[in-house]
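In this section we walk through a basic example: taking a raw amino acid sequence and producing a predicted 3D structure, encoded as discrete structure tokens. The instruction is simple. Fold the sequence below.
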Amino acid sequence: MHVPVLLDEWVDALVLDPAGCYVDATFGRGGHSRAILRRLSERGRLLALDRDPEACRVGLELAKQDARFQIRHAPFARLDAELDALGWREVSGVGFDLGVSSPQVDDAARGFSFRRPGPLDMRMDPGAGEPLTRRLRGVSERELTRIIRELGGERFAGRIARAILRAVREGRMESTADLEHVCFHAVPRAARHGAIHPATRTFQALRMWVNDELGQLRDGILAAQRRLRRPGGRLVVIAFHSGEDRLVRDLVDQAVSPCVCPPQLPMCVCGRKPSMRWVRKKPLRPSEAEVMRNPRSRSARMRVAEAVA
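The resulting token sequence is shown next.
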């Protein structure tokens, strides 16, 4: 069962106009969407997006129950196109809850977790793109090292990348169990039994690579900023990965302080005007009580920004 993180805080920050049009850019299993619908009036509308066909099946059932709600099988990078298809020129708010949902992690067939043996897939949308097994056959050791280091923050990235590609060449890399085994034995013995399993960061990095999660996020945030009602449209993002959180912060900062003048100039002459303002730049973190109830919430960070005229 997926437990939404920072649910009340996310909806409080997002839904300021009960009659507005909103986007839940990451439907998951619908916890946030249902909370939005409880806040909307009869005139309010909600569009949800998700790359996962299983999530969309849940969303279609919700759409049968509530005429104010629609869901589209699409990544949030397609936000502009989906709003155009509906004829929505602007929206009152766009919310993101990034990362994978508990059902995705718990389903061994998706290949997201080393806790349960499964195929090396890791695609959010199993019908699009290439599974991890195929992608590993075409990546260089240098590039794989960079991916594991930058997306996973793994200090033994070089050793792990080398071991993974050796296993690929030898035909020993077909399942999540194979990948876990290689990661475990690639790190020094002293690092194998710490608080975090040696495969954790590598699995995260490879999932983000397979799904182009940072690229999708960049496109989705920029699209959301373009389509927010001015003034007052809200952007609310919950991130669980430090790289995603930094990207959101930097993209909003560029809209809050868009000046591109050289720093040596005494005043701005480029004429660029802010299109966003921070409502909550310092991330909101879950309470100790929420982390106790839901340990997966411990790394969550929520930021809030608002469109200006």
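Looking at the output, two observations stand out. The first strand starts at residue 21 and ends at 24. The mean pLDDT is 93. In the next section we compare this with other chains.
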